[in-house]
Every structure is written in structure tokens, then in C-alpha cells.
From TrEMBL:
UniProt-listed Gene3D superfamilies: Aldolase class I (3.20.20.70)
Highest taxon listed in the record's lineage: Bacteria
Keywords annotated in UniProt: 4Fe-4S, Antiviral defense, Iron, Iron-sulfur, Metal-binding, S-adenosyl-L-methionine
Cofactor(s), names only, from the UniProt record: [4Fe-4S] cluster
UniProt domain Radical SAM core: residue ranges: 7-237
The protein's name: S-adenosylmethionine-dependent nucleotide dehydratase
First and last residue of the signal peptide: none
InterPro entries tied to this protein: Aldolase_TIM (IPR013785), Elp3/MiaA/NifB-like_rSAM (IPR006638), RSAD2/Viperin_antiviral (IPR051196), rSAM (IPR007197), rSAM_sf (IPR058240)
Length: 302
């Protein structure tokens, strides 16, 4: 099966398993209206959510005439790997249901044990890298205590993962804001050699701080045009209402482009995933086009 056919048939569900993070990025949108404990703290609730997620391909195929045959569960944070014991249980539950797995991480918690787990269990792993400059990373908030994000360590971990699993997809996620809009990340991307580089225009969900113009965003993308074969760039409109996203307490949610938070469904395990999907603001045309475009380019898959 070629990549285009594979991606067309794979449904990506983004589960933000925790809001907790050891970094404090000032434009991070992982801040939810929490009402209960995070779902990952209850193994039975995790199992119920997985059972509901398993129903999604047939629901979407019926509603939107898509042709999904499999599920990729993308684990996101906060920082995804802060609690390795709980994440390992989630991975086990996903594997039992034959979900494909991917994750996004800032890379700070990776050690030999976690690298082996990623290489063995994940088909794709993404690293959040916004800047190569210590001063900029400090201003962004990519620090833990007195330690600044180490992009050289990220490169070492990527090489280690690739060595253990040469077929794994490596992805880099970059948020472009007023703090890094003039930066050139080419040296890092050359060394990381990712399968995909997702470049996002900072989304003003929680705050409008560090916003940039569309012109500045386009300039950043064009500055890195040598990577056009792997770049997938998304402005604010493209990021809004076009993803299937679940928050830490198990609700569908969608970003607001107006800077006033999110729209939520009721908890999925309480009302079922079909009803929860109907309760969230969700643009079926954007969603359908996102996957239909995979017939043209596999680089456009989330």
C-alpha cells in the first residue's frame, strides 16, 4: 500500500491526555476548562474512551462519505510523557484495539527506556521545536527550572529512535510567533531529516500575545522553501474546527479563532461518541478536505 492510500484510510484522533507540562510556553493553547480529574488517571475510563473512539471510522464514513479503515491515536499534552506509567497503560489499551500510535513531545523526558518504548510502539513521533536560540527559548518559556530546551539533545534522541526503528516517521512541529518569526531553522531541519515539518501560525485561543501577521507567517515559510517537500503549513483558519480533538477529561473540543477559549461537547464516555461529535463545533467540509487532500499529497496529513 502506498503512502497516499494509507493516509486516506487512516483516521487521526488527537487526544490531549494531560494539561500538565514541565515547560511554560506563553502561547500554548493546552489550557482547558477542567471540571474533573484527567481521564488518564482512571484505567476503566481510559478503556471506555478507547471503545468509543473505535466506533469513529464507521460514524464518519456514514456521515461524511470518508473511507477510513483504521485509527491513529495521536497522544498530545501538555507534555505527553510526564507520567510514563500512565502513558504505558494507554499505549497498551490502544494496542489491544489495534490502533496505530503517534505522539508529540518536547523531548525533555526521553531516556533509554522511553526511547525504546517509542521505537517499539509508535509509527510516528513528533518533536516541538520553535527556536534554536537559548534566549528565544527562554522568552517562549521552553525551560524547566534553570535548564533551557536543548535542541542538540533532541537531535541525539531522534537519531537513537531512528537507529532502533528505521521505519518510524519523524515529525517536527514549529509554532511561528513574534518571538521566532525571523529565525532560520534550516540547520536543525537538515540534521533532523524529518519526514514532515508542521509549521503553525500562533493561534490566539487563550491569549493574543505574540501574534503575527499573515505576511510574517508566509515569510517564515518562504525562508524555508528548500523544505517544501516536507513542510505542511497551517494558518489560523485552517487550524480551526478541522481536527478531531479530545481534551484531558474526555470531551471533544475545538479551538476558537477569537481568543476566547474552546467549545466543548459533554464527556464522550457519558453520552457516546456519536452524540458528543454532534455537540462540538466541527467543520465537516474542512475535515473532509483535509483527508481528501491526502490523495494529492501525503505531507498534508495531520
Amino acid at each position: 500500500m502506498d503512502n497516499e492510500t494509507k493516509y486516506q484510510k487512516e483516521l487521526i484522533v488527537n487526544w490531549h491526555i494531560t494539561e500538565a507540562c514541565n515547560h511554560r510556553c506563553n502561547y500554548c493553547f493546552a489550557k482547558w476548562d477542567k471540571q474533573n480529574n484527567e481521564l488518564m488517571n482512571n484505567e476503566e475510563s481510559v478503556s471506555k474512551l478507547m471503545d468509543e473512539i473505535q466506533k469513529l471510522p464507521s460514524i464518519l464514513n456514514n456521515k461524511y462519505l470518508t473511507k477510513f479503515e483504521s485509527i491513529r491515536l495521536n497522544l498530545v499534552g501538555g507534555e505527553t510523557f510526564l507520567n510514563l506509567r500512565k502513558v504505558t497503560k494507554i499505549i497498551h489499551q490502544a494496542k489491544q484495539r489495534q490502533f496505530n500510535l503517534s505522539a508529540i513531545t518536547n523531548g525533555s523526558r526521553l531516556n533509554d527506556e522511553l526511547i525504546e518504548l517509542i521505537a517499539d510502539s509508535f509509527g510516528s513521533i513528533g518533536f516541538s521545536v520553535d527556536s534554536l536560540e537559548n534566549a528565544t527559548n527562554i522568552e517562549i518559556g521552553r525551560t524547566e527550572k534553570n535548564s533551557v530546551m536543548n535542541t542538540n539533545k533532541v537531535l541525539t534522541n531522534i537519531n537513537h529512535i531512528k537507529k532502533l526503528n528505521p521505519s518510524i516517521d519523524i515529525k517536527i512541529n514549529t509554532v511561528v510567533s513574534s518571538l521566532n518569526r525571523l529565525e532560520n531553522l534550516s540547520t536543525f531541519i537538515d540534521k533532523a531529516s524529518p519526514n514532515k515539518w508542521k509549521v503553525f501560525k500562533v493561534l490566539p485561543v487563550v491569549t493574543r500575545e505574540n501574534e503575527i501577521s499573515q505576511y510574517d507567517f508566509i515569510q517564515f515559510v518562504q525562508r524555508h522553501s528548500k523544505f517544501e517537500d516536507i513542510i505542511s503549513s497551517e494558518n489560523n483558519d485552517e487550524m480551526t474546527d478541522s481536527y478531531l480533538m479530545i481534551d484531558p477529561i474526555g470531551r471533544f473540543f475545538q479551538n476558537s479563532i477569537l481568543g476566547n477559549g474552546y467549545s466543548y461537547s459533554r464527556p464522550i464516555i457519558n453520552i457516546g461518541i456519536d452524540k458528543a461529535l454532534d455537540e462540538t463545533k466541527f467543520d465537516a467540509n474542512k475535515f473532509h478536505n483535509r483527508y481528501r487532500n491526502n490523495l494529492i499529497s501525503s505531507h498534508q496529513v495531520s
